[in-house]
Amino acid sequence: MSGQPQISDGRTCIDLLRHGETRAGSVYLGRTDAPLSEHGCRQMAEALPDAPRYHAVLSSPLARCAVFAQDYAQRHGLPLHFDARFQEIDFGAWDGRSAAEIAAADAGTLENFWRDPVVFTPPQAEPLLSFQARVLAAWQELPARYPGQRVLLVTHGGVMRIILCHLQQRPLTELLSLSVPHAALHQAVVVHEQK
Length: 195
Fold this sequence. Notes:
Layout: E1 11-18, H1 38-47, E2 56-59, H2 63-76, E3 80-82, H3 99-115, H4 128-139, H5 142-145, E4 150-155, H6 157-167, E5 185-191
Parallel strand pairs: 1-4, 2-3, 2-4
Antiparallel strand pairs: 1-5
Helix pairs in contact: 4-6
């Protein structure tokens, strides 16, 4: 595609890209600022081989998103904006720990979280409803900020699940059933409502 993409008035196209695999491995990764592994860098690069040109790039400020976003924006001459509201949920005492480690210490709490993450918050973690509120507050600003534009949002699995639940009108209790693997790419078209 040559030149800037054209989108109808009132519509904003947002491509959501999850970060790739990190050096931390298979752990609950929230506020911990783990960098991408080499494989994770390749995953993200491969997710956008024939991607349309964007008008702007947005990103979580955590390194596993920010490094790729900054490189991509620089290579394509795009403005880059970091928004901390698109950071992953804070897993509290579980942050940086694997499910196996958590289960060995307290299997019941982990099972409760998997069954109903709205009601059962991990110890010292950010409540899911608070996480949802900050993500959707940032999300709902985007159509007015980028009317008629195509934007790349580099973010996290939890953030993408919140947005997908919102767009698909699913209850938050279904959040963990949504598949968002490393370097997953989802496209959303949203309409700016004039007030």
